Amino acid sequence: MFELTKEHEEFRRLVRDFAEREVAPHVAEWDRAHHFPTELVPKMGELGLFGLVVPEEYGGAGLEEGAFTYLCLAIEELGRIDQSIGITLSAGVGLGINPILTYGSPEQKQRFLPDLVSGAALAGFGLTEPDAGSDAGATRTKATLADGQWTINGAKAFITNSGTDITSVVTVTARTGTDAEGRPEISAIMVPSGTTGFTAEPAYNKLGWHISDTHGLTFANCVVPEGNLLGERGQGFRQFLKTLDDGRIAISALAVGLSQACLEAVTDYAQTRTAFGRPIAVNQGVSFQVADLAVMVEASRLLTYKAAWLKDELSAGRGSVAAVKHAASIAKLYSTESAVTATRIATQIFGGNGFMEEYPVARFYRDAKILEIGEGTSEVQRMLIARGLGLPA
């Protein structure tokens, strides 16, 4: 049975100290200004956060056991202070580094990974399109191979870490032909920043995640070398499904951090806020809601770290892909929906103050909803869970 080790807990405290020292004092200002703190990324790299699942030869930690659990702990603790910073790490590793690490050639790994691990650069993963979200197989972006070069045309939407000053590359899925059965052949191709014809559109004006970098991308006769193909031609669909499995566990950890932040905020507020001459915590209408929140946090955390443990077991040659996929969907569904509920409870307990931006629960409330959408919607997770139980697809 899984459990967090002493080393895991020590690492949790290390990241918590970092988040409270380097993020917490600035987060309200960054959020108001919609400012992506580029200067924070190398500091995260110095702490080793981007290299937790990466071998030493590329500058990573080279952890032999529990690497993915370490990453989830880091995401949770950053997300406890601010969700945007948490998703910067989650996407930076899960969507930026992992596809290159898993499917890249030795040359591609040597070219990109050291800077990504150190925090000198960020990478993105372009999957979603304006007309292809949950139905990612409906990708319309096309890449044509001729004379040793790919010419890419199309558009991507909602891509994290894709337009920062230090973004070095975005991996995009594109149609590269048709397979033997006439279905679209989808491949993954790496497009370095600054490539002619590749444009990161102006940043979105989002409901939440104001600090996170998110852009639409366009490709207009964008030409890259044939060698920028990531992995095998026609395997892009399989690659991004695998990427999303890991990403769902990471988003679960992000949700746990948000629920934990809500629990801490309301526990303190309920004891210091007075009404009718006494702390509001003495009212069962308040204390029962806090108790429910505590249950959701505990259950979310257990589901998330069970899934992370199964992922680490699989990396060590034990367990099964099916078990990880099933656990990831369960954790993602429960923890993200619980986080949305947690922010609603927290805002309600704070009353009128919860509607004011000077209190962090207002930011928590704005940030929560996307958790039920990104890396596979709640509806998709229910479909996958049912399928894992043997129900008809």
TrEMBL record:
Keyword Flavoprotein among UniProt keywords: yes
Recorded GO MF terms: acyl-CoA dehydrogenase activity; flavin adenine dinucleotide binding
Naturally occurring in which organism (per UniProt): Rudaeicoccus suwonensis
UniProt name for this protein: Alkylation response protein AidB-like acyl-CoA dehydrogenase
This protein's record includes keyword Repeat: no
InterPro entries with a match to the protein in the record: Acyl-CoA_DH_CS (IPR006089), Acyl-CoA_Oxase/DH_mid-dom (IPR006091), Acyl-CoA_Oxase/DH_mid-dom_sf (IPR046373), AcylCo_DH-like_C (IPR036250), AcylCo_DH/oxidase_C (IPR009075), AcylCoA_DH/ox_N (IPR013786), AcylCoA_DH/ox_N_sf (IPR037069), AcylCoA_DH/oxidase_NM_dom_sf (IPR009100)
Domain Acyl-CoA dehydrogenase/oxidase C-terminal: 234-389
Key words, A-Z: FAD, Flavoprotein, Oxidoreductase
Similarity comment: family membership: Belongs to the acyl-CoA dehydrogenase family.
Database matches in SUPFAM superfamilies: Acyl-CoA dehydrogenase C-terminal domain-like (SSF47203), Acyl-CoA dehydrogenase NM domain-like (SSF56645)
Domain of life (superkingdom): Bacteria
Cofactor(s) the protein needs: FAD
Domain Acyl-CoA dehydrogenase/oxidase N-terminal stretches: 5-119
Residues covered by the Acyl-CoA oxidase/dehydrogenase middle domain: 125-222
